[in-house]
Design goal:
With 95 residues, the chain is mainly beta. It has no helices and seven strands.
Length: 95
């Protein structure tokens, strides 16, 4: 494809499960596309319901973590890779 600074990832979260940690960035914004199932995302202090074919743009500094609904959730994530840009946050979405 010839892309120079854009990447993508594929994530599957099993039914009723949550990602094991949250994260945020200094410079990299991300675009998430829900390609299967449904669930929720915690974005800083807000919780957003997500369904198949929803698209979510997340600014770099927003802390994010995803949780699958009863059918699981499948995501494509697009964004640039900046070395050392990500920060992992544990205990973000307790309870």
């Amino acid at each position: 494809m010839g892309a120079q600074s854009t990447g993508f990832g594929h994530q599957v979260i099993h039914p009723g499960k949550r990602q094991s940690f949250a994260h945020r960035h200094v410079a990299a914004e991300e675009i998430y596309v829900i390609i299967g199932g449904a669930g929720r995302a915690k974005l800083d202090e807000d919780i957003v319901e997500l369904a198949r074919l929803d698209v979510l743009r997340i600014a770099p500094e927003v802390t994010r973590q995803f949780e699958a609904g009863p059918e699981g959730i499948e995501l494509l994530v697009f964004g640039p890779r900046h070395e050392g840009d990500g920060e992992v946050i544990h205990g973000f979405w307790d309870g």
